[in-house]
From TrEMBL:
Residue ranges of domain ABC transporter in the record: 2-227
Domain of life (superkingdom): Bacteria
PROSITE patterns associated with the record: ABC_TRANSPORTER_1, ABC_TRANSPORTER_2
Entry keyword annotation includes DNA-binding: no
A GO molecular-function annotation: ATP binding
Name the record gives this protein: Cell division ATP-binding protein FtsE
Family that this chain belongs to: Belongs to the ABC transporter superfamily.
Length: 228
């Protein structure tokens, strides 16, 4: 489902962020990406949703080669990949309902379907009662649940989460993990970069460790393995 073949990424300023990565992630896997700051985790994640292009190598997601993807095909890929960020990235002037519905509007889904599906995912993240609130009226954990609702509303086969619990307290983080596990059980592959040692050591999954742009460890039901 996701495969990287000899992937390299050097930024225009010469930073060699990713240096020869080969990896396969199967449908329905839940994978943590760990490693020190500057290791290349974000670059690795960004290449999976085509925010960055590799300098060399192939990246297949659902059979599409992202390294070769034409500009006009990018929207098609984006609807099959949901992305979640540490800082939520909700649109502050839109309500919770509108933030989620917007993701369906951009792919021009039928109006009736937008309403039904938006309410369905807000119900799944237990925020239907906040549909008419603005993001600033919600706690951090609630805002992250909205961003998860937005990420899954178009039924993507993959979710890329970059530090999704980075701004949340431990208890709220556990709630977010339970939600992500539920989404994973419903059939969505999840790739999650994290510095959260407690989460990785509690909710055991496959762990891929990146250091200096290379994969240095890949363990099923692995542990965090760093002290921070
Ligand atoms: P991590 O997410 O593990 O902290 P990053 O992928 O953000 O690592 O960064 C890997 C390396 O690439 C670092 O040396 C970082 O400074 C560099 N880097 C990241 N983004 C850019 C960019 N847009 N331009 C130049 N260098 C970058
Ligand atoms: P947390 O404990 O996660 O920091 P908060 O104390 O920020 O949560 O919020 C607790 C509850 O109060 C949440 O349900 C949140 O939606 C609500 N809330 C927080 N700030 C506001 C606000 N400015 N207007 C309306 N409701 C709010």
């Amino acid at each position: 489902m996701i495969e990287m073949q000899d992937v390299w990424k050097t930024y225009p300023n010469g930073n060699a962020a990713i240096q020869g990565i080969n990896v396969k992630i199967d449908r329905n896997e839940f994978v943590y990406v760990v490693g020190p700051s500057g290791a290349g985790k974000s670059t690795f994640m960004k290449m999976m949703y085509r925010e960055e292009k590799p300098t060399k190598g192939q990246i297949f997601v659902n059979g599409f080669n992202l390294a070769k993807l034409k500009q006009r095909k990018i929207p098609y890929i984006r609807r099959n990949i949901g992305v979640i960020f540490q800082d939520f990235r909700l649109l502050p002037q839109l309500t919770i309902y509108e933030n989620v519905a917007f993701a369906m509007e951009v792919i021009e889904a039928p109006k009736k379907m937008i309403r039904k599906r938006t309410l369905e995912v807000l119900d799944l993240v237990k925020l239907k009662h906040k549909a008419q609130s603005l993001p600033s009226q919600l706690s951090g954990g609630e805002q992250q649940r909205v961003s998860i609702a937005r990420a899954i509303v178009n039924n993507p086969s993959v979710i890329i989460a970059d530090e999704p619990t980075g701004n949340l307290d431990p208890e709220t983080s556990i709630g977010i993990m339970k939600l992500l596990e539920e989404i994973n059980l419903r059939g969505t592959t999840i790739v999650m970069a994290t510095h959260n040692k407690d989460i990785v050591n509690t909710f055991r999954k496959r762990v891929i460790a990146i250091e200096g742009g290379k994969i240095v460890r890949d363990q099923y039901r692995g542990e965090y393995g760093y002290e921070d």
